[in-house]
Amino acid sequence: MRGLVVGFGEKLVLDGLDLDVRRGEILGFVGGSGTGKSVLTRTILGLIPKRAGKIEVFGSDLDKVSRIEFDALERRIGVMFQGGALFSALTVKQNVQVPMREHLNLSRRLADDLAMLKIELVGLSPDAADKFPSELSGGMIKRAALARSLALDPELLFLDEPTSGLDPIGAAEFDDLITTLQKTLGLTVFMVTHDLDSLYSVCDRIAALADKRVIETGPIETMLASEHPWLRAYFHGKRARQLSASTMRKTAQGDRP
Ligand SMILES: Nc1ncnc2c1ncn2[C@@H]1O[C@H](COP(=O)(O)OP(=O)(O)OP(=O)(O)O)[C@@H](O)[C@H]1O
């Protein structure tokens, strides 16, 4: 993204935003509430129009692709929206099959087999397949939403606050799942998160949004060393102190945080 400008009415949410997401990395995207993290994700996905700037996905300028080319790019991208956004009237299996129905012309049997593979991939038991979202725990909903985002074997995965609402153990398990999937499937992951644990344990790099643009990018050490007031408050505030101290110890001992 280069020089991205997005706004609603008189109000600009993003103004001159530059950001690179590198192939094969997990990029954590942080910023205060209401700063425009979801707006950026939705703009990249073509759901919100931009006023200026350029977005390239897989080397294609989104302003220059035809509708058919855009659809082909879209098939290479998986999205897990905040809260899962599962269809409540559909079972887990049917939810996972929604993108398949939209983009592929599969026999029912093949669609069933593929959906079951995705369901197992995210650590859900096969009997979750015929359950409705209302019958699932928060952690299971997240996994079902992740299974749906993987339905078309994407190369690039957008995760919007994947661990929000999970208890610390559930969140750590979900972090491990994302890391494992990223490695085994060779995914590039763009992850909006407020979760400091995820930033420390999962992300290769972090990008921080403030003042309508990306103010800092780099590994966790860059964030910890930044003098920007929001980053100082975020990474050195009360909640961050314990984590930060333990990471410093691990880094000093040569372990990856
Ligand atoms: N469709 C819309 N119409 C008008 N304003 C919008 C629209 N969508 C988002 N906004 C505004 O854009 C700003 C950024 O919203 P966004 O949801 O991207 O924040 P966020 O960084 O994802 O916040 P959070 O961390 O709380 O989820 C907010 O002020 C929001 O009110």
Strand content: 15-25%
According to CATH, what is the topology of the domain at 2-76 and 154-252?
Rossmann fold
The CA-CA distance between the termini, in Å, is 29 Å
| Structural class based on helices, strands and sheet pairing | alpha/beta
Task: Compute the number of helices.
Answer: 10
- The percent of residues in helical segments reads 40-55%
Query: What gross morphology would you assign?
Result: globular
Q: What's the Cα radius of gyration?
A: 19 Å
- How would you spell out the order of helices and strands? EEEHEEEHEHHHEHEHEEHHH
Q: Which ligands appear in the coordinates?
A: adenosine-5'-triphosphate
- Main sheet: strand order: 7-8-9-3-10-11
| Low-pLDDT segments, ≥5 res | 249-257
Biggest pleated sheet? 6 strands, mixed
Domain ABC transporter: 1-236
Keywords: ATP-binding, Nucleotide-binding, Transport
Pfam family, one: ABC_tran
Family: Belongs to the ABC transporter superfamily.
